[in-house]
Design goal:
With about 500 residues, the protein is α+β, with helices and mostly antiparallel strands. The chain has 14 helices and 26 strands. The strands form 8 sheets. The chain has a 7-stranded mixed sheet. Strands 23-22-24-25-26 form a 5-stranded mixed sheet, with helices on both faces. The longest helix has 20 residues. The protein is globular and about 85 Å long. The protein binds glycyl-adenosine-5'-phosphate. The site of glycyl-adenosine-5'-phosphate has 18 residues, from strand 13, strand 16, strand 19 and helix 10.
């Protein structure tokens, strides 16, 4: 297994080298917080979205789909609270012009023998406590202070008292006096609709796909033969002007979400439905190659809940840069539907045939970030092994998600009957799956090239195929086992492994 610290670099390099993910607008120096998916990346991402849609929508009886616009009537965002509340606390360093999210900037007083001798500040990461302690000891040494130092207790900058703002050093300069007080920064991207650019034509790129669902709830209830409890699922782009995009595609400014709004009766036991969804999502992750052993849960403290939430639990994944949020499962109560009912004047009530009651439903919201699932899948799949004295980089992707399901190789490329047979098999398989054909180079090298991009099966057409038994050799990427089978057996085998 690759060292943790290098793992992220190795994944980013592999993504670039093999055409999974590129920095956006790279020829112009890139654009911070934006990424493009290349030929293999788009396959992986589409496979994740298709697996999700199949499992969440097609294989369930209680969820229907939706594809709403990215730009809604801007009143949507007033009603949803995003215009007033969808903010991050921003801190500027007046000297360096750097900007920080206040809740990612940590500080502590350095107290020696009861006297505060200064402050240290660090940016949030796994090693920040050790870094802050080292800085504190340096400060004590430089100021030649004797006595015992109190433990360094880090707090984030949103918790700083006004009199502390000027005392906390800027992480950019190491000196105090240049940090501003935190101020609310709205993360929605604005645009204008129509020819006139003024406040009346202002609109927003959606920061979540969820609101598209809420504003279509009534249409779907009126037309869709749905009965509570039921869910509406949507996959699509979301945009946030993040202060600090970071960790590759983990936190970007344009990303994709896969969201479900699951409508329930206000009398239902929302806590158990919420827990049920958390378990269901964890099982889903496990089934696509993100092992449960690397997942954990984080319950948001009441004081830090989003403006719409009465309870949120994040499903956390052990990313190479630390344990971070992969997915949120929020209990939104009736906040959104009630807000839209009050703002639009359109009733959002549901008539429940079984209880003969009318009510505005409550909602449980499992919200997945597609790009974070891509990164988690890649992190879990990436491995480096030694085989026959040679290093091999392998992506152990689940066959459902792999960009290419199989690669077909003629053993040699200068034997026409062999090449023709391999080509015909390739074309037969291609009608059904995305498969690759490669005739160039030694067979071992061809396997390695496919291992690195996660192709689960290599299929070799050799002399025995054309001269003896018509069988081909299937090589399994993970076990390295080689099995000979007929072409019909091969199709059945692949079908079982890929389509499940
Ligand atoms: N509708 C609820 C909602 O949007 P959220 O926790 O803000 O909740 C849900 O976002 C999911 O969207 C997150 O768990 C994460 O997977 C993904 N996400 C949020 N911000 C992101 C960003 N800047 N870049 C990539 N993914 C992001």
């Amino acid at each position: 297994m690759s060292e943790k610290s290098n793992l992220m670099d190795n994944i980013v390099n592999l993504c670039k080298r093999r055409g999974f993910i590129f920095p956006s607008s790279e020829i112009y120096g890139g654009f911070n917080g934006f990424f493009d998916y290349g030929p293999l990346g788009v396959e992986l991402k589409n496979n994740i979205k298709q697996a999700w849609w199949k499992d969440m929508v097609h294989r369930r009886d209680d969820i229907v789909g939706l594809d709403s616009t990215i730009i809604h009537n801007p009143t949507t965002w007033k009603a949803s609270g995003h215009i007033d509340n969808f903010t991050d606390p921003l801190v500027d360093c007046k000297e360096s012009k750097m900007r920080y999210r206040a809740d990612q900037l940590f500080f502590a007083p350095v107290i020696v023998s009861g006297e505060t001798i200064g402050y240290v500040s660090v940016l949030e990461d796994e090693g920040m406590q050790a870094k802050a302690e080292e800085m504190a000891h340096d400060m004590k040494r430089k100021l030649a202070k004797q006595g015992e130092m109190a433990p360094i207790v880090l707090k984030d900058f949103t918790e700083a008292k006004p009199e502390e703002y000027a005392l906390v050093p800027s992480p950019a300069t190491g000196k105090p006096g240049s940090l501003t007080a935190p101020r609310a920064f709205n993360m929605m991207f604005q645009t204008y609709v129509g020819a006139i650019q003024d406040d009346t034509s202002k609109a927003y790129l959606r920061p979540e796909t969820a609101q598209g669902i809420f504003i279509n709830y009534k249409n779907i209830v009126d037309t869709g033969r749905v009965k509570i409890p039921f869910g509406i699922a949507q996959i699509g782009k979301a945009f946030r002007n993040e202060i600090n995009p970071r960790n590759f595609i983990f936190r970007s400014r344009e990303f994709e979400q896969m969201e479900i709004e699951y409508f329930i009766s206000p009398d239902a036991d929302w806590k158990s439905i919420h827990t049920g969804w958390i378990e269901y999502c964890m099982d889903w992750f496990d089934g696509i190659g993100i092992p449960k052993s690397r997942l954990s849960l984080y319950e948001h403290p009441k004081a830090k809940l989003a403006h719409y939430s009465k309870g949120t639990t994040d499903i956390m994944f052990e990313f190479p840069f630390g344990v971070q949020e992969l997915q949120g499962v929020a209990a939104r109560g009736d906040f959104d539907l009630s807000q839209h009912q009050a703002t639009s004047g359109k009733p959002m009530e549901y008539f429940d045939e079984s209880s003969k009651k009318k009510y505005v439903p409550h909602v449980i919201e499992p919200s997945f970030g597609v790009d974070r699932v891509v990164l988690a899948v890649l992190s879990a799949a990436y491995d480096e092994e030694e085989i026959e004295g040679e290093k091999r980089v392998v992506l152990k992707l689940h066959p459902r998600l792999a960009p290419y399901k199989a690669a077909v190789f003629p053993l040699v490329k200068n034997k026409p009957e062999l090449v023709e047979r391999a080509d015909a098999l390739y074309r037969r398989l291609k009608r059904r799956w995305n498969v690759f054909y490669d005739a160039a180079g030694a067979i071992g090298r061809r396997y390695r090239r496919q291992d690195e991009i996660g192709t689960p099966f290599g299929i070799t057409v050799d002399f025995d195929t054309i001269e003896k038994d018509g069988k081909v050799t299937l090589r399994d990427r993970d076990t390295l086992e080689q099995i000979r089978m007929t072409e019909d057996e091969l199709v059945a085998y692949l079908s079982e492994k890929i389509d499940g």
